[in-house]
Every structure is written in C-alpha cells, then in structure tokens.
Amino acid sequence: MTRVIAITGKGGTGKTAVAALLIRYLSKKGKFLLAVDADADTNLPETLGCEDVKTVGEVKEYLQAEITKPKPDNPDMNKESILKSKVYEIIEEMPGYDLLVMGRPEGSGCYCYVNNLLRGIMDKLITNYDVVIIDAEAGLEHFSRKIIRDIDDLIVVTDASRRGFRTAERIRELVEELDSNIGRIHVIANKVTDANREELIKLAEDLKLNMIGMIPLDPKIEEMDIKGIPLFKIPDDSIAAVEIESIVKKLGF
C-alpha cells in the first residue's frame, strides 16, 4: 500500500529542504518514490537538482482551453485521456525517484471540471509508488481541493521560534476544520541549537504537538545552498542527514 506523506510549514522554515532530505533518504533505501511539488513557489526541483521541469498547471491551462472546443464521440473520456497522457508526459524520471510539479494556481475561470479529472488521475497514479512525498503549501489549498485525497502523515516544519510553533498549532486546527482525510500530524523543528533545544521540547508539549524530530542548524546545508549544490548530494554523516534517518524510523519505515 502507498504511504503518502505531506510536508508543510510557513515560508523560511526549511520545509522544502526537509522534503528533499526525506526524498533522498527513502529513495536511497530502495523505496519506489514519487516526489510532488505542490508549492506555487516551486523550489523542490532546484533543491533536488532537477531543472527546466514542466508543471501540471501548464497542462491544466491547456486542457481548460480545449474544453471550449467541440469533441466527437465521448468528450469526457477524450479530455480525461488527454489530461492523463499530459500528466504522465511531464513526470520527471530521476535516479531513485520520479518528480511531478504542480505549478502555480490556475488563472481566471472555473477549473472545477479539470480538477475533478486530475483528482481521478492522481488517485490512480500514486498507487504505482511505495511512497509519495508532497512538498505542500502552508495554506493547504491542495488538501482543501482534495486533488490528492488521502494523506497518511502530515509533517509541519517549524523554525526554532514560539511563533513558528504557533503556526504549527494553527495548521493542525485548520486540518481538523477541513475534515480532510489526513491520518497523523507531526512536527519537525528545524535549525535547532543546543541553546534552545530544551525550551522547544517544552513548547511542543505545552501545545500538545507530536514532535518527531529536531534538525540541528547544519552549516553544510547553508554551504550547499550558497554554492547551488542540490541537497541530494549532502554527505550521509551531515548532522541534518543523520537526524532525518531518525525521523524516518519514527515514521515507521
């Protein structure tokens, strides 16, 4: 059965870096993995070292234009086939994983029909994989629209601040309000130091947040970011990579 993990969090917390590190570790462990960039900023491909990717958003715009054109025979089936073939075309096959980029939100007009077609396609697509890792938006728009219906684990990445943990708490409340099909909610504190570690543990306990990991402030990540080196190439013994291994074990892999 496919395990679907979504990673969210406010901007600047290192959400995409955490997603990339999880993708790196699980793919190296032999999991057949689909990485989905569902953030409108689309930073995951660059973090993974994959450039010039096409997006589902571009495909949806193309299909939206096609909807106004008359089609023979069974128009719905024809449009679904077009969208499915286009989605499969833009999946990037990378060493150890596949990558699908959602892209920016759609433009003017109602995309409900296209979204319904895409929902059915994604339902079938993700069953081809052992694990699906989604780098999601903080606003959880993709969950509220239910393009991807079922999430087994939602990981909220926060920085080492009280405001960041409060954001994690609000995301948890939003998920509950949406009545979405999300199984477990976890929190990862990123850029943690020895000076604030104990305080963050207590803060998570006070807010009743299930914190499954604390990634230390890793100078190697900062160095790689400045030099434009993909996180997929981070050494196994870096302090962030070591903590990711611990997190994956806590997730039950």
TrEMBL record:
GO molecular function: ATP binding; ATP hydrolysis activity
Entry GO terms, CC: cytoplasmic side of plasma membrane; cytosol
GO biological process: negative regulation of cell division
Keywords: ATP-binding, Nucleotide-binding
Protein name: CO dehydrogenase maturation factor
Domain CobQ/CobB/MinD/ParA nucleotide binding: 5-230
Species name: Methanosarcina thermophila
UniProt cross-references to Pfam families, sorted A to Z: CbiA (PF01656)
InterPro entries: CobQ/CobB/MinD/ParA_Nub-bd_dom, CooC, P-loop_NTPase, ParA/MinD_ATPase
